[in-house]
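I keep forgetting this: the sequence line spells out the residues, with the fold written below as integer tokens. I include a record here:
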Amino acid sequence: METALENHSFRYQMPIFISGVILFIAAACFGWVKLQYGFNFIDEGYHATESWRLAVGDHFLKDKLTGALMHYTLINRLIFEVCPDITMLGFRKLQFILTIFALLLFGLALFKVSGRYAELPFIFSVFAFTGLDPIGMVSNLYYQTYPHLFLTLHLSFFLFGLHAEKPSKKKFLYLMSGFCLWGISLSSFYLSVIIVSPLLLFFLSRKLNFKYYFFTVKDLIYVLTPFIFSWLVFIAIFNKPYVMNIFSSIEVILSMPTHSTGIIELNWELIKYVGIASVLLAVFFLILYLQNMIVILTAGATLSLISFFIIKTSFWGFLTPYYNGWFGRPMWFSSLLIAFILFFWIYMISRYLLKRSLNKEEDLAIILIVPFTICALTMSIFSGLGSLAVCQTAIPATTGIFFVVACRLKPMKYPPVLTLVMVLLILGPFYYMTSENDWEFTFFDVVPAQADTRIESGFGRGIYTNRLYSKLYGWLIANAAAFTQPGDYEISYVVAPMVHMITKLKPSLDDTYITILKSNIYYEKCIEKMVQEGREPKIAFIFERELMLYPVSLKRGTVDFPPKEIDFMTSQDPISVYVRTHMTPASTCKISKDHVIRCYVNQNLAHNPKKSEKKF
């Protein structure tokens, strides 16, 4: 009898699985192509520079007043040391390869504990395109994507551990699971609260009487041990300077206007998004209670179509596009996941109060949703992206949605494929719109269709961008070659940390994300430290506005530069004053009459009378 059931399961799952694999591979191919489009002078440059500077001699703490809250730089430092010539495109490809690996491992683990595999390629397909960053912001390895990677790996090893029969194998898998938990906290210090996850899961497994997955006290100890041990070793190595750096980092963050009003603020636009997503999700779950399969499919398709137009039109124009329209569509995806968290835990509380036992799918869903909830909540509070950051831990959440739907339809004796169809109907519009946004939005570059120039050398090699960025890239390299030697120091101001990766010159200041939002007192300390350490710049590039092309309309592909942040010639901020008094102008690059990029050099180089001016 059991063999007959297994054969039936194989017969219905294999054709679906093959179709899903085709979709997954197609999505992965398009995602791989997308990696080469879009150059970023700001965030992606910051993530690269902060890691590269450690690989070429700077110290994690001694050369920085801040930075102890984000340790991903130590991980990326190893990558730079192993592969010194790695490019930005190389980092993107590495992130993408790790995404595919994590999805395959996670899928195998889910199959081991649930016996279901056919639907997983469909559930994972969006991530095969977007990678670890469904927001479509930075397709790289940094403090927002590493948690997604380590969370997926943690759950994979944890599920393997639950399924393992040999004690030695089970111990090893739980230890690996715990080490991945430490990896999450190593990415961003505030995510250390993830250690609550196995404790909470152990508590819930007792309170909700898990019958299908057994997690013992001994198992809990094995999961917790690597996390605790790794942090003890880490703190022992860096000791008191590390603790002091944490306080310095927090002080600087809290001094910025974006955090001065408090950590948690009421966001009415977010409430509107989540409210609409909650209604859609509630209607979807009500549809699952209908008794006729044709009616269920018809109602589900209608709801899916409505969801599509709500996302596409921003609720027919009644909602303000989130984040100036840049991330409006991923915000819908994030809102759906937030709504699902609320519904899921309300449902589980009701099951507990009514003393109703859980089935296998519900047990598994809890295992997936507990760590996701902790990561999503923490990142929403502490990340500058706010609730958008929920998307960046979405892999276990979307899988949890699938198993919740499977749980609801299982007793109704419908064909198993109905579960997949219904999940695709609810997730499909969000998946499609999120993927479309990821393709169109290159995070402060032109849309891919307009990226007609390929960078042929240096850290940006292989990236397609606009002609302006490409010419500026060459101008930066030419000036650095004319006035500096390898190992020299440089200032890049305002908010253009990628300049260090282009010129391969170490930052003079301890901070490479130099923004006017940070206090003058902080930058005075940075300059004082720079002089004390003998890191005076040989060259400085001055950008009076953030070097980014923000989208005016993604649909039309129109972009514009942001307004000026400083007037360099009159500004009294510490960095502008230092450059004007200690350095001399060497070259300018005119983008427009009101947009000039300046190159200053050390006064010792003033004997070189050559000055150039380049206008785009």
